[in-house]
Amino acid sequence: MEDVPHPGDLERHIMLELGFDVAPTPDGMHGSGRVTPEMWSPGTRAVRTSILAAWVDVVCGHLAIGLFDPGVPVTLDLDVHLHRPLDGGDGVEMYARVQKSGRSVAVLSVDITDRHGAPLGFGHATFMAAPNPSLRMPTIVAEEGLLRPHAATLAVPYAERAACERLEDGVASIPMRPDGLNAAGTLNGGLLALAVEEAVLSAAPDTSLASLGMRFVRPVRVGPAIARAEVRAGLGSVTLCDHGRDDQLAVIAATRSFDPGVS
């Protein structure tokens, strides 16, 4: 593998501050995360579903690296579904495996459990090889990156750390910054999930998301990314655009919120 530098600030990357460890298993990839109060959905003790989506993307993405080597895997779609809100004190385990892999597209699934193996939910992700053949996965990401054990280091709430702002009810914005880029130099998909979540929660506060599904139409290359949500009876329809590229559509998402008081 070529020694290609990461285009962003990997040492201070927001995803590293979430403290998610990844390691290969005989039949897939295992991820493990510890939840801190900075990861809670505002007004609750439930871990943000956008963080779980970011972790699903990470554990599946590390598995996809081996499928498309030396190319860069690109997320086409991603979803997370929870049986109940994840209490802030719970640790999270994820077990990813390949369901189907071809030359250019791979479909993966993830089981989400607590530390004792009790089911918490599940997720899926579809990846393709980046169409630009000159792109290569940075060595530090493929060989070390998130594979080295590290603790969560978030010092402020997740949205504040990522500079994700609620502009008005149903609208949220997140900027392009070096500590939020992926290996292709575009805005990290986990941070796009945060913008989607914040847009929904600004319209339906004091709850958390039971489901989050995202289809990635095109990458966010300039930013800021602007998410706009319409929420009715707990069901959210969200579009996210790259404002710096004439508001080109980047993500289509659907969410389902837990009923207030559900635990």
Q: How would you describe what is shown here?
A:
By secondary structure, the chain is α+β, with helices and mostly antiparallel strands. It has one domain: Porin, CATH 2.40.160. 19% of the residues lie in helices and 36% in strands. The chain is built from 5 helices and 12 strands. Helix 2 (49-68) runs antiparallel to helix 5 (189-203). Mean pLDDT is 87; it is low at 1-6 and 139-147.
Key phrases:
single chain; Porin; disordered N terminus
Give the C-level CATH assignment: Mainly Beta
Q: Which homologous superfamily in CATH is the superfamily?
A: Acyl-CoA thioesterase, double hotdog domain
- SSE order, one letter for each helix or strand: HEEHEEEEHHEEHEEEE
C-alpha geometry: globular
Which percent bin holds the helix content?
Answer: 10-25%
Name given to the CATH architecture:
Beta Barrel
- Report how far apart the termini are: 46 Å
Biggest pleated sheet: 12 strands, antiparallel
Radius of gyration: 17 Å
Mean pLDDT: 87
Strand order of the largest sheet: 1-2-4-5-6-3-9-12-11-10-8-7
Number of helices: 5
Number of domains: 1
- Poorly predicted regions are 1-6, 139-147
**Structural class category:** alpha+beta
> What is the strand content?
35-45%
Q: Count the strands?
A: 12
